[in-house]
Amino acid sequence: MATFNWTHDYGAALEIKPRTREAKFGDGYAQEVLDGLNARPRTWAMSFEYRDHAEADAILAFLAANHLAFDWTDPDGVSGRWRCASWRSTRPRPLAKTVTATFEEVFGR
Description:
By secondary structure, the protein is mostly beta strands. About 15% of the residues lie in helices and about 45% in strands.
């Protein structure tokens, strides 16, 4: 498994959106439970700003080749398996690129 080793910029944002199942009953009562063993996947919004073209292109090539699953240690120091369903590249300066991506935690790949 490939490992993502580039250092992100400060300001990475963690989002946790638990998956649940809910049963509603006719009297207004409802029951809700977590959906499965890994029901709290983490998502990190990452930014790699003002990188030279070589580094930005290396990040983009890695994501293109490994977007379904790769190993990565998050900003909190927790290792895991991740995927990147979409990423963006911009050119804020003539000799620099910025890459933004969202890493989603995956299980069992």
